[in-house]
Amino acid sequence: MKILVTGGAGFIGSHTLVQLLRAGHEVIVYDSFANSKPQVLDQVKLLTSKDFPSIKGDLLERDLLNKTFAEHRPDAVIHFAGLKAVGESVEKPLDYYQNNVTGTLELLTAMETHGCHNIVFSSSATVYGTPKYLPYDEEHPLSPESPYGRTKFFVEKIIEDWTISNPQASAILLRYFNPVGADDSALIGEDPSGIPNNLVPYIAQVASGVLPHLQVLGDDYETRDGTGERDYVHVVDLAAAHLAAINYATSQTGCDAINIGTGTSITVMEFLKAFEKTVGKPLPYKIKPRRSGDVAKMEAKVDKAKALLQWESERNLENMCETTWRWQRYKMSSN
């Protein structure tokens, strides 16, 4: 199958490329490289011994997007491209609506124009908002609490309406939780610009001496140790879920939302202690006030992914820490 991957040089996108190429699919990468580096694609080619075209472009560049579809004629799209920082979305909501919502509208219009009917969308558990109950299942009310989360919510609804209007269309909305870890090779991984917004790359930078200490944002939640609990899923498992989703999407029509997580949760302090065990030393941290918008606990119900995609997570907390640390050391040595 020929698959257009928007945002393919990003953290999740690059790991998904590896899975797609190893499964024998052809890929075309479309990426603005606003939050990623073109060199990542060279690493993917090295890992897979496969070549593929890449186009530097923004989804808002209508002519380039249409030219890409006309030249490559993809059978399906996996859509990662978009801005993704919750805090930044509060400061720059219009940028988020323009990039994430308008960009997706342009993508769907190009798909419609060129007869491409299958899409897997990179959604997020942030669409659920404060839990009414846990674990979240796909029927949980949707009440996102940030502009970022609302862009995911709006795009889900737009894609759903598109599938209703087009009897040939098929869409899988993957609502995933907290992606962490890196490829076993350490050639690709999460590479945030500046101070990381996410816990695990932050811990890794503390462990390597890039940052002085971890900021633990709140220790007064109603959780096992007072720190926030999250459902962390290894990025290699998550990439495998995208492979399963694209295969499923092309075998049926309509729109389905599916949680991708482990079904268990880990606290900030539990993750910190596990990382300390991996690196063999204590890591400094300071307790800071809660971050606005954070909930005490998030956890996925994953039965639907098992039933429809025949997918479930395989990697544990120890592997998440080991592969992250291996990647962090590789980055440090190659800079």
Keywords:
alpha/beta; 2 domains; Rossmann fold; UDP-galactose 4-epimerase, domain 1; 335 residues
Brief summary:
The protein has 335 residues and is an alpha/beta fold. The chain contains eleven helices and 13 strands. A seven-stranded parallel β-sheet has the order 3-2-1-4-5-6-11, sandwiched between helices. A two-stranded parallel sheet has the order 7-10. A two-stranded parallel sheet has the order 8-13.
Describe what this molecule looks like in 3D:
- The protein is α/β, with parallel strands linked by helices.
- Helix content is about 40%, strand content about 15%.
- The chain has helices at about 10-20, 40-50, 60-70, 85-90, 95-115, 145-165, 200-205, 235-250, 270-280, 305-310, 315-335; strands spanning about 1-5, 25-30, 55, 75-80, 120-125, 170-175, 180, 215, 230, 230-235, 255-260, 265, 285-290.
- The strands form four sheets. Strands 3-2-1-4-5-6-11 form a seven-stranded parallel sheet, sandwiched between helices.
- Helix 9 (about 270-280) crosses helix 11.
- The chain is globular, with a radius of gyration of 19 Å.
- The model has no long low-confidence stretch (mean pLDDT about 95).
The description of the largest β-sheet is: 7 strands, parallel
The third-level CATH topology of the largest domain is Rossmann fold
Low-pLDDT segments: none
Distance between the termini: 36 Å
Helix share of residues? 40-55%
Number of domains: 2
